[in-house]
Design a protein that fits this description.
It contains 21 helices and 18 strands. The chain is α/β, with parallel strands linked by helices. The chain folds into 2 domains: 2-247 and 462-479, Rossmann fold, CATH 3.40.50; 267-455, Glycogen Phosphorylase B (Rossmann fold, 3-Layer(aba) Sandwich), CATH 3.40.50.2000. The strands form 3 sheets. It has a 9-stranded mixed β-sheet, sandwiched between helices. It has a 6-stranded parallel β-sheet with strand order 15-14-13-16-17-18, sandwiched between helices. Strands 8-10-9 form a 3-stranded antiparallel β-sheet.
Length: 480
Amino acid sequence: MKVLSVASEVFPLIKTGGLADVAGALPAALEPFDIAVTTFVPGYRQVMKQLKKVTELHAFPDLFGAPARLLSASRRGLDLIVLDCPDFFDRVGGPYGDDAGQDWPDNWRRFAAFSFAAAECAQGRAGNYQADLIHVHDWQAAMTPAYLRYAMTDPLPSVITIHNIAFQGQFAASVFGDLRMPPTAMNMDGIEYYGGVGFLKAGLQAASAITTVSPTYAQEIRLPEFGMGLEGLINARAANVHGIVNGIDTEVWNPRTDPHLRSNYKPSSLKRRRENRVAVEERFGIDHDDGLLLSVVSRLSWQKGLDILAEMLDEIVALGCKVVVLGSGDSQIEQAFVTATQRHPGRIGIVTGYDEPLSHLMQGGADALLVPSRFEPCGLTQLYGLRYGCVPIVARTGGLSDTVVDHNHAAAVSGVATGFQFSPVTPETLVHAVRRAIAAYGDDKTWSAMQRRGMRTDVSWTRSAEGYSRLFNSLLQDRT
């Protein structure tokens, strides 16, 4: 089966979050199921610099006002088709915005062109590649099924994966005339969304099937508090909505071999983690003592609940804990953490921005991982935590509740707990969860057993890939 995966980022070429990790790991996971994935990705400046050998598949003299080419390439085991369009993607800054964090004002045109080119490619109308099925990710690629819907009498089967329904690609109705869509598309059953144009909405309407990145999130987005205005559409298409929990690349994330750790280890040699703990303390200027070392690797945002953590740092430090933070985002939240480091030198440390090697070291050295998200479609950081024996303390929502077993009395007695959950997300419940973790940490036998249990949890893509394989095959069978 030939699947064209359409994603606006893919690890290791370009990454801003978990979408890139999923798009980068799923192709290899699907290989054992006789599924050949080719990843369609924008030719950002960062991507083009990494391509060694390319073959031109097709040229677009005018792709939404700019010349463009489709290039075939391979990189680190990924088969790629890259949309080389310098006018849209050869820019200083990130994939979606400039260095100041402002969205590119022409994002609607950039990702409409991206989706249009992907649809042309999938149909075999842009080179010698033709797909059996399309798998698109989030709003940036969501117009691909819509373009197929209006271009083909029998559209190719398509699957759209929602990584976070809060990001929808909503634009003014005035852009519709430049989207190369028939007038009939601008209606409630097409791409019209609250009087404007909705890219994610268009994909959810047009795709053959919808997946989310955890079973719980698939249920949550049917509710107004999580559906972000799209819950009506999700409920209308409930029979076509599937929750398939994410996995991680267990070769890249492997404490036995990870080159970013000071000391590699396995479940039977947990004492070697202490060398990594010391390395984390050194990197953040944190005291070397036995206080529970809590880590945060995240966007600093309201969604992630980090405003609540910032509010409670004084109390958490008073309990004897140390906190290290890697991330960036909301300027007020970021400043709250920076100010806290000044109030509590040696107890709180922050590194702003993103540092992939440091994120590995934190998972391999910190005692516990804090993920107090108000909503979390899946989350990958808690999966990395389980894999590395960095015990997750998570909010009971979305994929966090699907992947971490709470250390309640029944789970403790049964020997199945892998972390701590709390709900609702409030300052009081967060601190209570930290207190529970401190109590467990005080018992070496209990804590090390929980670490080993987490490390032996299957967080790979194997079962997830099996779920995608079943879905893809069922869609192809329905077509025949």
